[in-house]
Amino acid sequence: MISVPAGLIEGLKFDDNGLIPAIAQDADNGDVLMMAWMNAESLRRTLETGRATYWSRSRQSFWVKGETSGHTQEVVRLSVDCDQDCLLMQIRQVGAACHENFRSCFYRDVTEEGLTENQVRLVD
Questions:
Q1: Which among 23, 43, 41, 42 has a CA at the least distance from the CA of 33?
Q2: Which fold does the domain 8-117 belong to in CATH?
Q3: Do strands 87-93 and 20-26 pair parallel, antiparallel, or not at all (unpaired)?
Q4: For residue 83, how many other CB atoms are within 10 A of its CB?
Q5: 24: closest CA among 56, 65, 62?
């Protein structure tokens, strides 16, 4: 995609664990698909490859979205919020963004009845 601009990563505000939230948004329709965490190295890899690369807190390892599932994320645009403590990636999603096999991780609405699914599972 692009080489890492000088000072970009150093200017970001990572939390005490060295992480920053990264929101993945569909580049075509604006749907929010998921939120995951990045550290400086996963952000660097994302910028250099154009493929969304996250830091898995549970596995303590890098996670290239779609590496095993085929549900990839191609980064089209990367934005930083005003406080420089959150990333927004506009992506082209192939398949499900959610590990539960929904298009978006935000597949449940809060209703008077409780949580109601608002999407159909892409893969059973």
A1: 23
A2: Ubiquitin-like (UB roll) (3.10.20)
A3: parallel
A4: 8
A5: 65
Question: What ranges do the domains of the chain cover?
Answer: 8-117
d(CA 45, CA 25): 19
Q: What would the DSSP string read from start to end of 25-84?
A: EETTT--EEEEEEE-HHHHHHHHHHSB-EEEETTTTEEEETTTTTS--EEEEEEEE-TTS
Tens of pLDDT, residue by residue over 14-72, are 999 999 999 999 999 999 999 999 999 999 999 999 999 999 999 999 999 999 999 99
Three-state SS letters, 57-72? CCCCEEEECCCCCCCC
Predicted TM-score (pTM) of the model is 0.91
